Write the structure tokens for this entry.
Amino acid sequence: MMRTPKKKTTAAMLAVMLCFPFIIGSDYIWRDRISRGADRSTYRCDEGVVSQGDLMRDVLDKCGEPMAETRIQLEPYIVWIYSDSGGEYIVYLGFTHERLNRIYVTRCWDENPHCQ
């Protein structure tokens, strides 16, 4: 009988535990389901401008509560979703380690559940 080395088994279990939350869940969205848009370095909210590197609490103070919070499949982002320009655009703010890492703006499309 062949035995699996303990290091390989432990590493495999750790990989599954770390990746599992990003693979399952109904509140996740797939990257390819986000229509073509543009990355931005800043976004103007009602109470000020947010930019990459801002803390979550600062974004919350300037933009208010997001209309939704989710994750992107297979990426370590927490994503806050805002509607802009009367619902014509959707703004995805991606956070890693409590900091704004990505600002992505896209036009609404029919199949997007975040478009009103």
